[in-house]
Amino acid sequence: MRIKCTECHSKAIISSRNELDPKVADLYCMCANPECGASFVMKLSYSHTLSPSRSQAHSMAVELLRGLPAAEQLDLLQQARAAG
Ligand SMILES: [Zn+2]
């Protein structure tokens, strides 16, 4: 992951990371430009999911199927196989 110095726009190095929550971290950064030497904290946060985790998709499918009568479950499985 690339961080740019907020002062001189040179490359900065992440010296440490403080995990505040699984989706938010503070990144302690130091500018690599010896003539600048700024240090600062950037916040790294989760934004949104593009595709769900395979394990999440699997458990969602199982939950959805559980809510249906057995005949419909089989019907959906057949449809899924035909589509694949
Ligand atoms: Zn700098």
Bound molecules: zinc ion
Number of contiguous helices: 2
Helix residue percentage:
25-40%
**Outline type:** rod-shaped
Unreliable stretches: none
- Provide the spatial order of strands within the biggest beta sheet: 1-2-3-4
Our measurement of the CA-to-CA distance between the termini, rounded to an integer number of angstroms, reads 37 Å
**H/E element order:** EEEEHH
Q: Largest beta sheet, briefly?
A: 4 strands, antiparallel
Topology:
Blueprint: E1 3-4, E2 11-21, E3 24-31, E4 39-45, H1 54-66, H2 70-83
Antiparallel strand pairs: 1-2, 2-3, 3-4
Bound molecules: zinc ion.
Features of this protein?
alpha+beta; 2 domains; 2 helices; 32% helix; 33% strand
In short:
The protein is α+β, with helices and mostly antiparallel strands and 84 residues long.
Can you describe what's shown?
The chain has 2 domains: 3-45; 54-83. The chain has helices at residues 54-66, 70-83, and strands at 3-4, 11-21, 24-31, 39-45. It has a 4-stranded antiparallel β-sheet, with no helix packed on it. The radius of gyration is 23 Å and the shape is rod-shaped. The two termini are 37 Å apart. The chain is an alpha+beta fold. The model has no long low-confidence stretch (mean pLDDT 93). Zinc ion binds at residues 5, 7-8, 10, 31, 33, 36, 38. Residues 4-50 form the Zinc finger Ogr/Delta-type domain.
